[in-house]
Amino acid sequence: MERKTFALGDIVQMKKPHPCGTNEMEIIRMGMDIRIKCVGCKHSVLVPRAKFEKNMKKVLKSAQAEE
After folding, report:
1. pTM of the model as a whole
2. Record's InterPro entries (predicted)?
């Protein structure tokens, strides 16, 4: 299985949309748990890393590419 690479500040696409309608999330904290913030309504959620990796589709905007 290919391991998805993501970093702090990346905008990622999730498999399921947030209740506000968008499925784009920004990674704002990383560790054992990952805090993601909804791009649409700015609501943040703390998700265990294993669950985040399972539910993440792809990285839409990389933070490194913008530097």
Report:
1. 0.83
2. DUF951
Label the pairing between strands 56-61 and 44-48: unpaired
CA distances 64 to 10, 39, 50, 67, Å, are 8, 18, 23, 5
Tokens standing for residue 60: 């839409």
- For 17-27, what is each residue's pLDDT tens digit? 989 999 999 99
Torsion of CA 62, 27, 11, 67, to 10 degrees: -30
Q: Where are the domains of the chain?
A: 11-60
CA distance 2 to 17: 23
In which element (H, E) is residue 24 found? strand 24-29
Q: Categorize the per-residue pLDDT at 1 as very low, low, confident or very high, splitting at 50, 70 and 90.
A: very low
